[in-house]
Amino acid sequence: MGEVLTMRTRLRPYRAVLASRVRAQRSYRASFALDLGSSLLIGIVELAEIWVLFHNVIELGGLEFTQILLVFGLADFAFSLADLSFGHCDNLPVYLRAGTLDVFYLRPQPLLLQLITSDISLRRLARAAVGLAAMVVGLTINEIDWGPRAIALVGLAIVSGYVMFAAMFVWAGGLQFFLVDGAEMTNAFVYGGRYAATQPASVWSRPLQAVFGFFFPMAFTGFLPVIALLGLDGPAWLPSWLGWCAPLAALWAWGMALLCWRWGVRHYRGGGG
Amino acid sequence: MSGIVETVDLTREFTRREGLRRRRISAVDGLSIRIDAGEAVGYIGANGAGKSTTIKMLTGILVPTAGSVTTCGLRPVEERRQLARQVGVVFGQRSQLWWDLPVGESFRILAAIHTMSSTDERRRTDELIERLEMAEFLATPVRQLSLGQRMRAEVAAALLHSPRLVILDEPTIGLDVLSKQRLREFLVAERRAHGTTLLLTTHDMGDIERLCDRVLVIDRGHLVYDGDLAGLSKTVGAERVLVVDLVEPTADLTALVDVPGTRHLASEGHGMRQRLAFDADLTTAARVLAAVSELVEVRDLTVEEPDIEDVVRRIYAARR
Q1: What confidence tens digit (pLDDT) does each residue in B222-241 have?
Q2: How far apart (Å, rounded) are the C-alpha atoms in residues B174 and B153?
């Protein structure tokens, strides 16, 4: 019981901030509805793009359209959820300029946790809904041998995908300490990574394979779990059993993200820390 | 008992890139200060003299290049989170409040951040609301507050968790006379009630006079003065200035030689307004005024304090 109470007390600061962000966003109803609408539109346009690209071919990179839809759904759903809760992390220059980061230093919580819980973008729920819909349709129309194995694989893929994309935002945040207007550069990997993740890794060019196959483990968010789930053969460089290794990839992504963050904070404070 | 703030040879260098060359610049250089519990200290210096850098090192935001610092008996960088519970900082230029939320709600979130119990929270919030007269705008979103209201809310936000040490960085900047006065009165009362230690940077002599019993002056990272305000004026020989508006145009009042330490500075409007500098140690404003009144009829007058910029400029000039 005591344990539970201390946990509640520990989470109180973060809950209070997040709850206030939610209230603030919902209190401006018209603007919130507009945000939701535009976010939904972006989600649909992105889905339409996949549709147009892949619908007219029978098969691409060893996957049919319905299978690609599942790759898109899984990756996009995980990305949208990560964007919703971590998307503001790569907005660090704004925090730096406004002095918000110094204010975080004056509060008795860890810096990164404060940054992560300092905001939440509810409007991205609309985009997550598009991803979720694509995923559910994909899971329904593909032939899947449903059982504990399949359920575990899908669950693992969603959670790991979310964690991996979240790590990408933290990684980008850490680099912003060094780069002046560095968002352009990190966006190439964060949003480029999302884009790559929603397509079959088997069609990637060689540089993409190197960057998003393993360094930023984007293939693990959609493509690999899908080929493992559907019992397909992956390309030679990505055997389908790797689909089960998504948690390892997530661990790797966070290791890299935290390293970057520490490095950035050290730079900001000028050593130590 | 150890001081609330203790620094020994505290130094912070920054590397600045100039083209291909890198140059190291000391923002704070060998600073050794000690501030005891309950003191109120003014920390003054020109822009870029190293005030903000010092504050950032005291609060654990910046890591010192050399030397040591303890704040509230803690090492700021290593023990930042414990320290945050004992220090409150008001940055005149940046906000701790949530711009889109009502003031009262910002206080509730801050109470949660400092995990205050609900009784403490209520008692302290009520106290601050009353003393800083915030009841009228408690339900107003922060972005709609006037500057004076916002500064009061910022001060309350920094003091909500009853810190032992309060650091105020330019707290009265941009405020009108009445708002300044209110804020100073509050800080005096807060200090009396809770024995809070104050450290404030300011460009406003009034802040120092009304709030501080000790002044530290920093120049290019070096401590150049540590003592009380009177002593500071004495070291730099800053004079006060009596400005008299006369009834009719008059020749320059240069002949006030019988009043010691007084001299004529300038005249405007054919001698309708004249400025007389006097040394407050040698004479008083009343005696200067009496001497003037013997010669001409005075319509109005003001006494100008030596301003902080002037004092600092004189100290700097004496060092160069």
Answers
A1: 999 999 887 887 776 667 78
A2: 15
